[in-house]
Amino acid sequence: VSGLARVQAAGVLKWGGDIQGGEPYVYDDPAKPGRLVGFEVEIANAIANELGVRAEFVQNDWANLIPSLERGTFDVVMNGLEVTEPRTGRVSFTRPYYVFAARLMARASDMSIKSDLFALHGKKVGTLANSLAFEMLRGSAEPVVYEGVEEPYADLANGRTDAVLLDDVIAARYGRRSPGSASSATSARGTTRSRSAPATPISRRRSTAPSRRSPPAASSSAFSKSTISGTSARASWSGGRPPTRRR
Amino acid sequence: MIGTPPPPRPMSSGHVRLFLEGAGITLLVSTLAMALAIPLGLLLSLARFYGGPLIARLAGAYVEIYRGTPVLLQLYLLYYGLAPVLKLGALPAAVIGLGMNYAAYEAEVYRAGIQAVPKAQLEAALALGMTNRLALRRVVLPQALRHAIPNVTNDFIALLKDSSLVSVITVVELTKQMTITAVDVRRWIGPGLLCAGLYFAMSYPLGVIARRLEKKLEGERRAEEAA
Fold this sequence. Notes:
The complex is a heterodimer.
Chain A: H1 3-10, E1 12-17, E2 27-29, E3 32-37, H2 39-51, E4 54-59, H3 65-71, E5 76-77, H4 85-88, E6 91-93, E7 98-107, E8 124-128, H5 132-137, E9 142-146, H6 151-157, E10 163-167, H7 168-174, E11 186-196, E12 199-201, H8 221-225, H9 228-234, E13 244-246
Parallel strand pairs in A: 1-4, 1-5, 4-13, 8-9, 8-10
Antiparallel strand pairs in A: 2-3, 6-12, 7-10, 7-11
Chain B: H1 13-50, H2 52-68, H3 71-81, H4 90-116, H5 119-127, H6 132-162, H7 174-185, H8 189-226
Helix pairs in contact in B: 1-2, 1-4, 1-6, 1-7, 1-8, 2-4, 3-4, 4-6, 5-6, 6-8, 7-8
């Protein structure tokens, strides 16, 4: 049974993500906690509409999204999951719907951190477990791994680490520490480019590993057919339809 | 492209409702896990005493393995490791994972309870012509379980808090809800205190019950000794 047939038979597209520190991807509506908002919510609803099913969000710790996808907890992952070599061997990605940059942040007062990953040797750099930023740090810095995206910045401001490497969108949302507050201010030191895309498990045959730009493997063609590029362009940043949330 | 993010909003009554829902999941998972741990633990302790050498050894190995490894690891193995052969849902996996772990502790509690019943009582029951099984059911177990009650209650309190671990297998319980909200509102103290208050509201009554049972038990024991 193909993934598409399964989803259509069930009438539900289950998509996995982590709402802890999920701004602006997927998170609790501040005005109405329990209702989810975010641009990924809108993309998920748009894909579900295209398939004639309903989208259902499934909460899952970010670091374990791929294992949960593989065991079938949900049909698809969409949560800023970066397209990386090790992952393309395990799951198939659609075309990227989001381009981001990894941003290195340090305390504003600490001038020893330069805009160069290789100059981080021996420095403690906070990041998210299993993220692309974590892969980038291995071999140069001493990565300090967190399960959430706000805690690394708190530890940086409090002096427990020397820098934080995470996506720019995360840095913009969670990396701000005002100079007036008890903790020290943080500032950006450098950025790199990368992409993230929805992923589906590779079922039956492991076709040619999809490259970053090529269409995804057969099992996930349903999701590419709903044209991520087109849908994401249409998805407004207005709140969209309230999704259901499995708890 | 990123723009200036809106300032975080403070906690609202909507968050409190989510916390209460999380507490409900915590209570549900803990209660069901304990409901599994109690009979399984009893079975294990009986197997260790009366199961014959092989079964007793297997039951002993179960207890040692489950007590000797982290419950977090057990949850990961149950949910992800066994997935190719056993695809449990998140909630059943949480209940079974915690229940099987706590069964090992319950088995030890009942073992202590059974040992606390003087051997002479079993011998007397057998001398009166009871079968082993009947003597166990009518004489040994009622007293052993009474001895065990305070410890079982204590374990349930511990289980309430250990149930926070099941968030790693996608169950959103009270502690996970707290971390989600704390990051949303950029504050840990408020959500943390609310979370702590809810755990306390669940565990304190249990603690009171445990103390009362202990006192009652102590009174009965003294009455028995005086008689």
